[in-house]
Structure formats: C-alpha cells, structure tokens
C-alpha cells in the first residue's frame, strides 16, 4: 500500500507526535495524583528522562506507546505494511534504547514499572497495578 499523503503533509503530521505530556502519560499522572502520590516529571539527570519519578521511593513509571516502543503481542504494536525496513529499524532502536536506559536505572538502584498504552483500557486493573508497585518495598 502506498502512502496517500504528500511528503510535506506526512512531515506535518509526524511533527505533531509528542514525546512528553502525551494523553496516556497524562492519564497515568492523573491516576497517581488522585491516589495521593506525588512525583517529579522528566528528570533530565536520569537516563532516558523517565516520565514519572518518585524520588523518595526510588521508583520510576515509564509510560510507553505500543506502536513507538514495539509492544510485542499487542495489536497496537504492529508495524505498518509500507516501508517495513524503515519502521522495523526505528522501533528496534527505540526498544534497544529503552532496554539500555532501564538497565542503567536498575543498576543505579531504581525500580522501574513500564505502563503500556494498551493497559489504559482497563483503568481499575491499572490502578491496582500502580498502587502495588508504588507501595512495594
């Protein structure tokens, strides 16, 4: 299948994709704040500038988009049929960067929870998962 957009229009669309303050991230932040927990955002001194950082608890919550971060087994994580080589390489670089950053954080004594975009569908289950992660010693 050929892209139906011009290169200029596709560039315009892609330029609007954000890396911070995304809808999934905002939803998780509201949920955590509503549970009474406080946190820092995008701490630049930590590898990968994690989305949500609970400094006193040494916990990090990273909200990832299923497509951009290659969520295996997820219907939203499937690659497009066009330019498969480009997208496959791009997503694999993202996954490798995520693995490297998570390893660095864990070696530095941080506990990391990854929340996938598809997990936001069931908010009660996600809320319980977040609470369990935050309260675990």
UniProtKB/TrEMBL annotation:
Query: What is the purpose of this protein?
Result: May nick specific sequences that contain T:G mispairs resulting from m5C-deamination.
Its Enzyme Commission number(s) read 3.1.-.-
UniProt protein name: Very short patch repair endonuclease
The answer on whether this UniProt entry bears the keyword Nuclease reads: yes
Record organism:
Azospira oryzae
- Supply the enzyme class, top level: hydrolase
Similarity comment: Belongs to the vsr family.
Lineage, top-rank taxon, reads Bacteria
UniProt keyword annotations, A-Z? DNA damage, DNA repair, Endonuclease, Hydrolase, Nuclease
- Pfam families xrefs: Vsr
UniProt-recorded Gene Ontology molecular function terms:
endonuclease activity
């Amino acid at each position: 299948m050929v892209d139906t957009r011009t290169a200029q229009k596709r560039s315009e669309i892609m330029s609007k994709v954000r890396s911070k303050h995304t809808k999934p991230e905002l939803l998780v932040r509201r949920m955590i704040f509503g549970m009474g927990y406080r946190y820092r955002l995008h701490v630049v001194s930590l590898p990968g500038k994690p989305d949500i950082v609970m400094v006193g608890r040494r916990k990090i919550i990273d909200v990832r988009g299923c497509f951009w971060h290659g969520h295996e087994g997820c219907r939203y994580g499937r690659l497009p049929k066009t330019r498969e080589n480009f997208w496959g390489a791009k997503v694999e670089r993202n996954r490798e960067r995520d693995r490297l950053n998570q390893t660095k954080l864990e070696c530095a004594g941080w506990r990391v929870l990854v929340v996938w975009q598809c997990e936001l569908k069931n908010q009660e289950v996600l809320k319980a998962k977040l609470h369990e992660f935050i309260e675990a010693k």
